Amino acid sequence: MNEILLFFMIISLLTSYYIIFSKKIIYSVLSLFLIFISISILYLLLGSPFLFISQILIYAGGIIVLMLFAIYTVGIKETEGINLKEGIVAFLLNFLIFFLIANILKNYPFPKKIISFKMDFIFDKLLKDYLIAFEIVGLLIVIGIIGTFLSVREK
Amino acid sequence: MKIIYILSILLFLNGILIILLKRSFIYILMGIELSLSSLSFLLFLTSRILGNPDGEIYAIIIFGISAAGVAIGLGILINLMKKKGTQEIEEFKDLGK
Amino acid sequence: MKTFLIFALFLPLLTSIISGFYGHRIKRIFVGWISTTSIFLSFIFFLILYLNSKEFEIILYNWMNSPFNINFSLIKDKLSSLMALIVSGVSFVVHLYSIYYMKKDEGYVRFFSYLNLFVFFMLLLTLSGNLIVMFIGWEGVGLCSYLLIGYWYKKESASKAGVKAFVVNKIGDVFFIIGIISILFFFKTLNFSEIKNSINCAPVEILKFSGICLFIGAIGKSAQFPLYIWLPDAMEGPTPVSALIHAATMVTAGVYMVLRLSFLYSLIPEISFLIALLGSFTAFYSALCAVKEDDLKRILAYSTISQLGYMFAGAGIYIFGKSFFHLLTHAFFKALLFLTAGIIIHSLNGEMNIKKMGNLKKLKYSNILFLIGALSLSGIPPFGSYFSKEGIISESIKEPLIYSILTLTSFLTSLYIFRAYFTIFYGEEKTKIYEEDKKLLFPSFILGIFSIFSGFLNYKENVEKIFFNENFHHPTFLSFIPLIFSIIGILTAWKFYYKKELKEKGFIFELVENKFYFDKILSIHFVKFLYKISEIFEKIIENGIIDGIVNGLGKLNIYLSKILLSFQKGSARFYLKIFFTFLCFLLIFYLLKFV
Fold first, then answer.
1. Taking CB atoms and an 8 Å limit, are B20 and C580 in contact across chains?
2. How confident is the model at residue C502 (pLDDT cuts 50, 70, 90)?
3. Quick one: which H or E segment has residue C261?
4. Secondary structure (DSSP) of A49-80
5. Residue ranges of the domains in chain B?
6. Which residues have a Cβ under 8 Å from the Cβ of C37 and sit 6 or more positions away?
7. Which residue of B97, C248, C347, C391 has the smallest Cβ count within 10 Å?
8. Residue C365: how many CB atoms within 10 A of its CB?
């Protein structure tokens, strides 16, 4: 079990590095797409098919498509790479924090088996205890879309 | 489990790295989405480890929020293009000296 | 009782603050009446307190407990209550007078505010229970004296005179502080009653040192030689100011201080004799200067210095009671003389030179009042100062040197004052005379009556009983000698000045006229030296250090703000970078704890 999970995790990690170093936007967007797919497979492997479908629908299907539309509308092709100085400092800090957190976590007892829940149980909770959050998120999406639409239209 | 958990933290930090290092606005949006996505994964994983069902629900909600976020971000991108014709955020220094 | 004291003390302060800040909104005369009423109320309270012979001490505020125990305390005993009564009484009369005297002046409200402030500080000095409160009052009256002398600040001579008064006062104050510090370090307290209790176990050197230093402060405040130079110039202020401050109250603060510390000075006979000697020399010297003066108010100023010399002479040879009694009678007749001088000057439309006055027979009442004051000053019975001045002189027979100086001075005293009297009121008319202002006469009348009857203050040796180490004095044959000298002085003045003009020429007259060139010597050597020092100070300290610091602070500010400004680039990436760097550092700091 662990090896497959590890495989997909490493794919997403390496792809995210590729986003940093690439110069062409389309390649970066496609790498993002790949990352989302691998994360969704991870969701599936960890026992939540709903989240697998949701991730593909929303992220890979919705967000990537939106980005592609925006890129084609605006018409960007190439950008410059990263600054060397900034890059080194950022990477150093990145790894520093990572190692510190990993240091703390390595002594924490992770259980051998993961606990999965049934979907009924999850939906039950979603629609009973977290109903307000659910509704507000819907409202938020609508507001966002209407706001964007209003700010972009031609007078 | 441990290694997956730790690597997903690295994924999140990578997303932040993208935000910091890239100059074009699209990249920033990409970085934000990557961070949010890895965050929701992390929450999900924690809930699996701890046995608390709330984590999955948070993950679902974060999906929704990030979707809204990217919609607004793309609106901002199009407005920026209209103002200056470029997305490099270095060009937008009007508030500074 | 205690509330009466606090109320009577702080009411003038309250009125001063209120009239200072809000007095411009109401009609000017009301400010004058309000200030006068507050002084009147204080006077009534002090009268009640004086008649009630309980003694008590109030502690207003506990300033520090270690290393020294210092409070702000007020004390009410026979000395302070009688002095406060006289101070508030004379202040009340002077306030009443100045309501109409200053009527035409623009800064009317400011005048009354300052005057009330002065009364507050003087009362604070009088009622003080320890040296710190006395010093606060001391400095306060010095400040108000400066403010009131330089009241017409647009006139350059007036503001110069104010500064001169303040600076000379300050020279004495330096020594006063040194005296306070030496007492503080030895006695560990500044409270009068506590010092009095533990005075016997103090080494004589400490007492001598403190006594000298405190007395030098008194020299500055009470205008003795050589720090008297500010008082004649202080006549630039309005006449009520001269009457109140430089006759009755502020200049007597030095004498009051010596009287307060009589228990200290009783133990250092050599220093006290020096005080008496200085006092009598000052009395003689300033009387001599007054003989040749032509400006009416300056004559009275020198007369004040002279009479203060009498008081110090008395205090120096341990006749504190008579000295205090002379302080009280002097307050009355000197204030009377000043107020009458004010009426005369007013009716001559501002003329102050007595050589230009003459034949003021029209001003009948001023004539009588000035005569009363002059007779009082010369010490003619039954006026009050006969008892006090003659008392001091006769008791000083135990020190023959002082006795002879003081007796000669009484001759000069009556000479100069009757010279002034005859020159002003008799002879030919030199300046146009206007009507005397009737409203100004009423307060002067009050003072006139008190001058006549002030002898009865010492009824049954009332005043002398305040100081216990007194042997009561009864008039003997010797006590008529000063009286004879005074009468000779009056007759001399009559012969030379009544309806006549004496051509005052000759070497002696010139010497006296230039005040023995004292002022000139002082100005050449001392004042020029002071100016040079202040120039050096200005260049090095003022321009270099102080300006450098102030400008430097400004430049530092600009430099720092430039640094901070560099953070405001307007580039969102830059902000993000800073933001995340900071977060990283926070996170790192936090996480390092778990390593």
1. yes
2. low
3. none
4. HHHHHHIIIIIIIIIHHHHHHHHHHHT--B--
5. 2-85
6. none
7. B97
8. 16
Interface A-C: count of C-beta contacts within 8 A: 21
Closest-CA distance, A130 to chain B, in angstroms, reads 8
Q: Is A41 on the interface with B (CB under 8 A)?
A: no
Selection from C8, C238, C1 nearest residue C122 by Cα: C8
Cβ atoms of C264 and C211 within 8 Å: the answer is: yes
The domain spans of chain A are 2-85
Q: Find the range with the poorest average confidence among C122-131, C260-269, C515-524.
A: C515-524
What gap in Å lies between CA C230 and CA C222, rounded to an integer? 10
Q: What integer pLDDT is reported at residue C77 of this predicted model?
A: 85
Paired with C61 in beta bridges are C72
pLDDT of residue C431: 67
Phi then psi for residue A23, to 5 deg, are: -110, -15
* Closest residue in chain B to residue C575, using alpha carbons only: B20
Average pLDDT for residues C548-564, to the nearest whole number? 85
Amino acid found at C371: L
CA A153 to chain centre: 29
Q: From chain B, pick out residues whose CB is under 8 angstroms from the CB of C577.
A: 20
C591 Cβ contact list (under 8 Å, min separation 6): A97, A100, A101, A103, A104
Percent of chain C residues past pLDDT 90, beyond the cut: 7
For residue B36, the chain A residues in CB contact (below 8 A) are none
Beta-ladder partners of C110: none
Per DSSP (E only), the strands in C466-523 are none
pLDDT value at position C472?
Answer: 58
Contacts of A51 in chain B (CB under 8 A): 44, 56, 59-60
Q: Name the helix (H) or strand (E) containing C22.
A: helix C2-22
Q: Which CATH class is domain A2-85?
A: mainly alpha
CA distance B35 to B62: 11
> How far apart are alpha carbons A91 and C497 in whole angstroms?
109
Q: Which two tokens stand for residue A57?
A: 């629908």
Render pLDDT for B41-65 as a digit per residue (tens, 0 to 9). 999 999 888 888 888 899 999 999 9
- pTM, full prediction: 0.65
Would the pLDDT of C275 be above 60? yes
pLDDT in tens, A59-90: 999 999 989 988 888 777 677 777 788 889 88
Joined tokens for residue C116: 């009330």
At residue C215, the 3 state secondary structure works out as helix
Which tens digits make up the pLDDT trace of C307-319? 999 889 888 888 8
- What is the tens place of the pLDDT at every residue in C325-361? 888 888 888 888 888 888 888 877 777 777 777 777 7
CATH of B2-85, one of 2.120.10.30, 3.30.70.100, 1.10.287.3510, 3.40.640.10: 1.10.287.3510
The answer to whether the beta carbons of residues C281 and C241 sit under 8 Å apart is no
Whether residue C508 has pLDDT greater than 60 = no
ipTM of the complex: 0.89
CA distance B31 to A88: 18
What is the torsional sign of CA C530, C536, C539, C544?
Answer: negative
Q: Which amino acid is at C122?
A: M
| Residue C254 near residue C218 (C-beta atoms within 8 A) | yes
Which residues lie below 8 Å from residue C582, measured CB to CB, with a gap of 6+? none
Which among C381, A133, C482 has a CA at the least distance from the CA of B54? A133
Contact, B22 vs A28, CB < 8 A? Answer: no
Give the phi and the psi of residue C592 in degrees, each rounded to 5: -65, -20
Helix C296-316 × helix C269-292 angle, to 10°: 160
Given pLDDT bands bounded at 50, 70 and 90, which one contains residue C503?
Answer: low
